[in-house]
Hints:
Oligomer: single chain
Order of helices and strands: HHHHHHHHHHHH
Radius of gyration: 22 Å
Shape: globular
Helix content: over 70%
Distance between the termini: 52 Å
Amino acid sequence: MNTSSENGRSLWSEIIESTRKIFKSHARHFHAISILFLLPIIFSLILYLSFELAIFYPDYDFTSYTQLQFFAISSFVYALFLAFFFICGVGTTTYSAVQVIYDRPINVVSSIKSMRNSFFPLLSTFIVSQTIFISITLLFALILVFVVRILQSLGLIELKSDSDHLLFLVIFSLIVLVPILIWLQMNWSLAYVITVVESKKGYETLRRSAKLVKGERWVALKILMYYEPVIVWMVVWCAMFLDRGEQWRSFRGILLTAFTSVMGYILMNQYLVSNVVLYMHCKELNDEKLMSETAAGEYVSLPVEEEEKNHDVV
């Protein structure tokens, strides 16, 4: 048991160290693609959380059809914006990391061009995974509402906006729901890498990821918990700071937003690269044939010949 946990810690440390080395060895390249695709995500999340809620609260009336319609449309458009940049960020970062691992030349142009092959498979995987996440959340919410209705009819609880019962139910719901979603995300941590490298898509990549990561789930969980909570905390804290009065206009607010955005995209980039490193390790662990120089051409998302031509031109 101790040996297993020590091996897990050792592998986790090795993956994090390898991720940093990959990032540092081609820092300008990873910064460039991150500024193009990941920075808009972090920056817009900060602005959305700080300004959108500040505008709508406390005067926003969700019972008004016009305002509710505007909120729904704006949220949908913003979700499309996030999805597009996320998919492009995942695709270009994963492609670049694989090329670096196999010591092939990379440049920004070829990384962006790789999206011609991987965008729609990544979109398919994204839609399937998010549909499952949303379905589980909605199902859990319906079950919770049903239970609450029964308890209310029996007179066991009384729900008000300031009720302790309501707070308890919210906390209990999060305690049950969040671990389920984290478990799924942990099992699917290699899905986007598989989509880019193996040209699979949709539910097939989710099954493939769960199978491949088996035996290294705790390592995948550690990687997830090492990056994601920090990114979420930074974005939420910065948004809450900007929401205080006119802080967003101050020099301190602008500086904090810039710093959080930069640190956010760096951590997000390294998380994506670490999943590529974990994928390579899991392939070796499962005694699967890794991509060789001769076999690389079989993967449509990694056009080596085109990559080398682009490198010569650039």
